[in-house]
Design goal:
The chain is mainly alpha-helical. It has 2 domains: 1-39, no CATH class; 41-70. It is built from 1 helix and 2 strands. It has one helix at residues 44-69, and strands at 3-4, 9-10. Strands 1-2 form a two-stranded antiparallel ribbon. The chain binds zinc ion. Residues 4, 6-7, 22, 24-25, 27 line the site of zinc ion. Zinc ion (ZN) binds next to loops.
C-alpha cells in the first residue's frame, strides 16, 4: 500500500497519481517497503477513447479521400 511520509498516512493505490505522487502534498509516495510506489496502470477506458479516436480519424480520412475521387 502506498504511504506518504509528509502526510503520515496511507493512500489507496487509486488515489496515487499517475506519476506516483501524493494527491495531498504532491510528494513522491513510497510503498510500504520504502520503494517508490509504482505508477498507476493506464485505465482501460483510456484505450476505449483512444480506439474510438483512431476509428473516428480513420473514418474522416476515408471520407476525405472519397471526396477527392468522387
Ligand atoms: Zn502527502
Amino acid at each position: 500500500m502506498p504511504w506518504c511520509e509528509s502526510c503520515d498516512r496511507y493512500l489507496s493505490p487509486n488515489s496515487v497519481s499517475v506519476v506516483g505522487s501524493c494527491p495531498g502534498c504532491g510528494e513522491r509516495v513510497t510503498d510500504a517497503d520504502g520503494v517508490p510506489a509504482r505508477s498507476q496502470k493506464v485505465p482501460w477506458h483510456f484505450w476505449v477513447f483512444a480506439g474510438a479516436a483512431v476509428v473516428y480519424l480513420s473514418w474522416r480520412l476515408i471520407q476525405g479521400l472519397w471526396m477527392l475521387v468522387a
